[in-house]
Design goal:
single chain, 341 residues, alpha/beta, 7-stranded parallel β-sheet, globular
Length: 341
């Protein structure tokens, strides 16, 4: 399996590729389902979530499927209510801004509390080509904390950073609680059939290096250590963290996702002897094939044919991307990297 071999830094016949948000709004077949039901309803229907997970694999020669789920699903069984606004933005119904707000918030038994995610994984594994890897995922503790404290999306993450500074004890309690939830959730996904798991730290780039090292990294390291003990490869993606990769490298992941804000070779130098995932700017896919191939070739050149490169975008696919350009990208990565082992 190309992806698993790359995670272990073994030679591959071609660089594996999968795309963050590959199951989603850019696909007309996804939009047809989405018109009939809410995002949460889709996640809670294993037959629907499995169908959405598999949709991009029917169009493109991708090397992995990533389970269709939402990053916030563990919050409800924790005692943190949320819903989505009309524009699909998450709304936390009772943001946590202090110690009292943590009352009634607790860890979960992911296998029992989120059975629909596990059923989706089982269905996908049953349907998936055995040469294609299945990826499970979770939000990282800080990213989940950001949603919980901010009350949803944020422009400056002022509330969560204010909590860090004014009440580090409560912030640490929240992060510790979330770390346990993430570990349990990922382990349950692995037991249900995930062969690789990715931890999305989507908003960690809003934290400075000092605060990352002091208040965030210990919890990421805890998650990595616990989940890697299962023997399953773990990918850690710190979006916007290219300025502190020397610290990110201490997280203890098998694979590090890299955004497009740094050249892949420079990132790899800082991350060390690990596998690296990335790192094409997602907006490149709005350009013509010539522009796409030129920039794919640059990423591949910087990877230098070293074992352990997984091609991906530096963040998720956007809804406006033409399907032909996604196909061109996937085919170009395989074509430019193909070589005998």
């Amino acid at each position: 399996m190309r992806l698993l071999d790359a995670c272990a830094r073994r030679p591959v016949d071609a660089t594996p590729i999968w795309l963050m948000r590959q199951a989603g709004r850019y696909l007309p077949e996804y939009r047809a389902i989405r018109e009939k039901m809410s995002l949460v309803e889709m996640c809670r229907r294993p037959d629907v979530a499995a169908e959405v997970t598999l949709q991009p694999l029917r169009r493109f020669e991708l090397d992995a499927a990533i389970v269709f789920a939402d990053i916030l699903l563990p919050l409800e069984p924790m005692g943190i209510g949320f819903h989505f606004s009309k524009d699909d933005g998450p709304v936390i119904e009772r943001p946590i801004r202090g110690a009292r707000d943590l009352e009634g918030v607790h860890t979960i038994d992911a296998a029992a509390d989120l059975p629909y995610v596990m059923d989706t994984l089982r269905l996908v594994r049953h349907e998936l080509d055995p040469t294609i890897a299945l990826i499970g995922f979770s939000g990282a503790p800080f990213t989940l904390a950001s949603y919980i404290v901010e009350g949803g999306h944020s422009r400056n993450y002022a509330h969560v950073k204010k909590l860090m500074y004014e009440d580090p004890v409560t912030f640490s309690r929240l992060m510790g609680l979330l770390s346990e939830v993430v570990v349990d959730y990922l382990k349950a996904q692995i037991a249900a059939g995930a062969q690789v798991v990715q931890v999305f730290d989507s908003w960690v780039g809003w934290v400075g290096p000092y605060d990352y090292k002091l208040l965030v990294l210990p919890h990421v390291r805890y998650v990595m250590d616990k989940v890697r003990a299962t023997g399953t490869p773990v990918i850690y993606f710190g979006n916007g963290a290219s300025g502190m990769l020397h610290l990110v490298a201490q997280a203890g992941a098998d694979v590090y996702g890299v955004d497009w804000r740094i050249e892949l070779d420079r990132a790899w130098e800082q991350l060390g002897d690990v596998a690296v995932q990335g790192n094409l700017d997602p907006i490149t896919l709005l350009g013509p094939p010539k522009a796409i191939e030129e920039r794919v070739a640059d990423v591949m050149r910087r990877a230098g044919g070293r074992p352990g490169h997984i091609f991906n975008l530096g963040h998720g696919l956007i809804p406006q991307v033409p399907l032909d350009n996604v196909k061109f990208l996937v085919d170009a990565v395989h074509r430019l990297s193909a070589s005998p082992i």
